[in-house]
Amino acid sequence: MSSAVINRLDYQEPAFRVENINLVFNLDPVTTTVYNTMRIEPLTDSDHDLVLNGSELELASVFENGSPLSTERYTVTPEALIIRGIRQKTTITIYNKFHPQANTLLSGIYMSNGNFMSQCESEGFRRITYFPDHPDMLTRFHVEIRADKEQYPILLSNGNLIEQGDLDNGRHFAIWEDPSLKPCYLFALVAGKLVKREEVYKLANGKDCLLQVWVEPQNADKTEHTMECIKRAIHWDETRWGLEYDLDRFMLVATDDFNFGAMENKGLNIFNTRYVLATPKMATDLDYFNIESVVGHEYFHNWTGDRVTLRDWFQLTLKEGLTVFRDQEFSRDMLGKSAVIKRIMDVRALRSRQFPEDAGPMAHPIRPESYRQINNFYTMTVYEKGAEIYRMLQTMLGKEGFKKGLSLYIERNDGRAATCEDFINAMAEANGRDLKQFFLWYSQAGTPRVQVKTYWDPEASTYTIVASQSTPATPGQPVKHPFVIPIAVGLVDSEGHDIPLQLEGETAPLGTTRVLELKDEENEWTFVNVGSRPVPSLLRDFSAPVILDYAYTRDELAFLARNDADPFNRWDAMNRLMLGVLEDMTDVIEMGGKPEADHNLLSSFEQILTDETLTPAFRAITLQLPAENLIGEPRAVIDPDAIRKARTELKAAIGRRYSSLLFKLAESYETPGDYSPDSESAGRRSLKNLAYDYLITGGNPKALIALRGQFEKANNLTDKLAALTSVVNSASPAKTNMLVEAAKEWQGNPILINKWLTVQASAGTQPGEADTLTRVRQLMDCGAFSIKNPNNVYALILAFCNNEPEFHRKDGKGYEFWLQILRELCSVNEYVAARVARTLDHWKRYTPDRAQMMYRVLNEAKHIPGLPVGVQEILDKSLGLTD
Prior knowledge:
Its cofactor is Zn(2+). InterPro entries: Aminopeptidase_N-like_N, Aminopeptidase_N-like_N_sf, PepN_Ig-like_sf, Peptidase_M1, Peptidase_M1_dom, Peptidase_M1_pepN, Peptidase_M1_pepN_C, Peptidase_M1_pepN_C_sf. With 883 residues, the protein is an alpha+beta fold. The protein has 26 helices and 32 strands. It has an 8-stranded mixed sheet with strand order 6-5-9-3-2-12-15-14, with no helix packed on it. Strands 17-18-19-21-20 form a 5-stranded mixed sheet, covered by helices on one side. Strand 2 (16-26) and strand 3 form a beta hairpin. The radius of gyration is 28 Å and the shape is globular. Among the domains are: 1-192, tricorn interacting facor f3 domain (Immunoglobulin-like, Sandwich); 309-443, Neutral Protease Domain 2 (Neutral Protease, domain 2, Orthogonal Bundle); 450-544, Sandwich (Immunoglobulin-like).
């Protein structure tokens, strides 16, 4: 694979058009053959070569208009078939072979549990046949699949089934035709022993659509929830956006072997099984929720990604950021009165994973300017930060304004390959807004820091907010220009009520939440008729992806945690209070002292815990302590041991102080009867299990007894896994038997075994136990783990690498393990290897001894034989060897 840098500004329009493509597959696990017939039309008078991308293919023959093409007319390289002398419309036929069984990269067509599966985004189609493999090459696909009928009774591809029947020698065929124009990255093929759940669904336009969920036979009873999610997603897209489905059928296939979560291939989505299969005893409340979210995401791509696709891969956020925003809105609407839980989850993920990315060596805008391997840019920045940029537009333009802009964008670009400019221009025109400055969010990397100062004038009864912005330099971008930052604000009086907000120059108040647009390095706004000093509620609903600097006192944070009318900011105030206390406790530990919990925090904790006006789900998520990486993020130097000790001691202190209250609450929030993943029941389980987790961390013996009983008797995985996780993270020897029991019960189920692996890889080492790294090495040798299975690697290896004190152990053995795993993965699956490589992105942030050891293994990794380009790119950026 080429290591050349690809630059956005080097884009050139295609010199040829593929009018249509006819593919005939003769499937065989060892060697599959493809007959590829393309109708090619030159688009310019210039004498361009036709470059057809191809990787790890065996070329057998090339024909033009039915006659063999002279070898003088074409050249074959490891990366392309180059044909010269095409000056008029012509038909090119290519006969090539590839090897599915040997494809451990899981890109192109590969084998999974004896079935043929495919993954073509971003550059997998070139591993199937020769084609201009870039997203602006849209064509119509006609596909015939031939295979052994007994081994592969089900043959699927995109679009509509035209014909199927038997062939000689026990083989059969199916012909699929997709009427839509699509790029080759949306092509899909599946063949194997599969069973389906199907329903006929009536679309809003009155047409019937066949919905099918295909799985392996043993999973036939695990797809009811997914089918219901598909129907909810279709209905939501129709009612919220006026977008209707356009094919006769919508198919979804699940596989255990998949590099990603799911893929939106036109009409034939392919999913990782963990986002499809669900029963009460194999899926947690969060799994049920995530399945709905991912099903929605992939379905919503039908319009934002499939019908309107991308000009080039630099525009990736145009489909992914936009569709993440749409799936977030879908999930919030499905949650009803608990909608804020989704917002909190999204912002927690953004702060814990995307903000560090913005501050690290891999920082890039949501539309990158260059890359060596595009798969390295399927990132939190492109997806989740991208979603925040689209959300800001909705905040500024209003829901109806955003919908008008989206409708115009789709109307103009249906069946086309679009750019980010196309989207912004549609939003601007539909709403009569100048969005040129806003477009900086697409081109500038880094997280803006917004500093806010406030001034109350008691004599004039005015309250002034002064906000300034700055963005740190990032690789390749030393100078930053001011963004447009929407800041949603409220003012809370001493009684806990929102003050009606009237800006200077206005004749009357306009609501209790106002969106102020920070456009310059500094702006100020003055509110009138503010008769007493308020507490500002800033960045309500997290109205912009920025770091807020405002000198809240702990009393003010405690006040907002109890009173803010904005539920997100109520959570955020408690979260900030916890973070401040944990940072102080970490400081004390690093200086050799004994930390103590803060009274404001303890008081607020009790008040929220006992506030029955709040939903159980909101109380549970608000009372969770911040993750260790969030505690470490603002620190100049990260000491993982001190951070974990501070977090554990605060958790234990709360568990001891409120033991009777927590125990009573846990008992009262049981969910008897049949399991239901609805938000109310899930919230009750979440609060109950949080209470038990605080109790067992505080050493409560009754909690251990209760959790062992819950583990043995639970009728749902949420309670069973929560009990197991809490006990495994305690000093109790009961964990050994519980892990053995779980392994016996869950063996044979890959999804459950992966959870079992993660529980152990994420645990801390207790006195007298073998360390976690030793346990991880042992688990790698158990029959349930395979380095070739991405889900296994994510569940065990990545979980361990994210277990800060255990991975960053002082003797450096965690880093030696990282290097060993990276060597293995580089020869198996470079995409998974790249994900593991990124766990050392922030090596400079740690204590000097750890940083030095990480620097050494990063340099050693650069000498891995056959180092993939994508991994090399990450290592170079981590070491500061490239911008």
